[in-house]
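Tutorial handout. Part one gives the primary structure; part two gives the three-dimensional structure as tokens.
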Amino acid sequence: MSGPNNPPAFPLQYEDRTSTGVVHTVVSEGISQRALLAGMALQGQIQFEGMEGCDKQHMAAMACELADALMAELEKL
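Part two.
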């Protein structure tokens, strides 16, 4: 879920014209920055450690912690 501390990573807004000519603004937030960063961290963990015999819950929690830490550091810039 996105919010002020977790904005969308790839927001999209465009106008869609119906066959009758009515224009609707379509907004899609897509994936949140936190989810994107956590997924990237998880990919790195899997590449480095592999998946065999791993604690998947621990790896997911670590990926979220890394995403949160990176977002906190980026806020300082």
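Part three, for discussion. The first strand starts at residue 12 and ends at 17. The mean pLDDT is 89.
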